[in-house]
Amino acid sequence: MNVLDSFEMFTTVVSFLEVEFSHFKEESKARSRLFTFCNDYIDMIQVLLQFLRVEPRGDWLLHLSIIAAMTPHFYAFDIPNYSKWLPVYLSDMNNLPQSHPIAHQELIYGDYSVNRSGNPISNVSSDMALEESINRDSKTKGGIVGISKESGALKGWFLTSHQREAITTTLKYMCDMQDNDCVSQHKEAASTRIKKDEECVQSLLTAFIVMETLHRPSTLLQE
């Protein structure tokens, strides 16, 4: 059997498993509200993970697709601001090819997110990039600390913030310096965060074992 035949057999088996698993879910949801709840929760988590995956890649069309998938959940959980304005946002963005074709092309190229490190798949949203640069500088020494109650000084600081940011960025570039804590490594990849996540996983596993859920999976299908 050659590679092509093996691949075709694999896809056939996977397709069969997908159909069988879909039938299993439908039958289980009909028998158990708990199973329905867990299945819906997993679906929401998958949408969230897809959204988190899209931003670093800068994939505009996939971004719109995930936003569309998230929108019904905001209605279901009665979150008025998102449920009200996300459909408007999607309508405007889907109309961009006709209303603003040049802007749409730039978004297709991935310019709706910011890559500060130059590394692939490391884009961040524009508001996050702002937090990591200008807003971060405002909260450190030399920022608005100590002048927040002085109206004139505060206005002057904000009016010149973009110029100071340009000077700071240029100076760092000249000195071959970077904001390593914000650019080179994501906070989720830090050792302390990894340790905390592992502790949470172990705690969850312990809870499962105590409840004997893993040893009695049939209980998930009961009312």
Secondary structure: elements and pairs:
Blueprint: H1 3-31, H2 33-57, H3 60-76, H4 80-94, H5 96-99, H6 101-108, E1 113-114, E2 124-125, H7 126-132, H8 134-138, H9 151-159, H10 161-174, H11 180-183, H12 191-210
Antiparallel strand pairs: 1-2
Helix pairs in contact: 1-2, 2-3, 3-4
What do these coordinates show?
With 223 residues, the chain is mainly alpha-helical. Helix content is 70%, strand content 2%. The protein is built from 12 helices and 2 strands, in the order ααααααββαααααα. It has a two-stranded antiparallel sheet. The radius of gyration is 24 Å and the shape is extended. The mean pLDDT is 81.
Short overview:
The chain is mainly α and 223 residues long. Helices cover 70% and strands 2% of the residues.
Q: How do the SSEs run, as a string of H and E?
A: HHHHHHEEHHHHHH
Q: Regions with pLDDT < 50 over 5+ consecutive residues?
A: none
User: Strand order across the biggest sheet?
Assistant: 1-2
Quaternary structure classification? single chain
Radius of gyration, in angstroms, nearest whole number: 24 Å
Number of DSSP helical runs: 12
